[in-house]
Specification:
Blueprint lengths: L8 E4 L5 H12 L3 E6 L2 H11 L2 E4 L5 H15 L4 E4 L17 H29 L2 E6 L12 H21 L4 E8 L5 H8 L9 H5 L10 H12 L10 E4 L12
Parallel strand pairs: 1-2, 1-4, 2-3, 4-5, 5-6, 6-7
Amino acid sequence: MKCDLVNQVALVTGAAKGIGKAIADRFAASGATVFYTDVDKTALEQSAEAGGGRALVLDVTNSVQIDAAINAVIEQCGQLDILVNNAGINTFAHRVTIDEFPRKEWDRILAVDLTGLYEVSAAAAKIMRRQRRGRIINISSIAGLVPLRLQCAFTAAKAGVNNLTRAMAIELGRDGILVNAIAPGSTISEGTLQLFYGPDGQFHGQAQRMLDHVPLGRPATPNEIAVAALFLADPENTYLTGQIIAVDGGWTAGYHRDF
């Protein structure tokens, strides 16, 4: 897919690896000035250099760093046209029912996946409202559409992201700001390799049973999620807002609640 993002400035959180890197790379290849942001400084700088973007260390749970990142974008470019809220975490060690789920782990996940997204969006929206234009693209999950077992914090956070997306679309639409979310299905990443798709994955034995309920029969690649983000960022896409787009190989079309 091709689109023209020349003269557009984008900031992508969690862009050192995986889906965030794939999105940032796609934007940069389409002509945008892209700020890759992440907490992993080494991987971030490598990804930004390889993708032709600019690196900014950013912890989305740190309001000082958020303000500094947004200010840096404006100082260097004078505008912010696209925000992709991709930074997110889940738990590997605590795949347990809610009565055993640690409060500390709940707080850790919500701080990044929901509150962090709110904080970055609020900072970016101030700029975009002054500009009277902008795109905010939130990376949610199918877990926010159909709850998954043993992931109470993650499913709660992503469900919150979905309704926050809709609320922002309602609030910001009159200012020329489109707000949408992408809900990926199971996607190849370092995390899913540890859980499912790697030979030593924690739930490797269950991976095929899960994929049996995906009509396309396989997990997504990060680039396939990035294509959806590119569509939402395309300047020719001018009337789509407040939507949650499931990029899941058809999984949620006939969802089976074994997972």
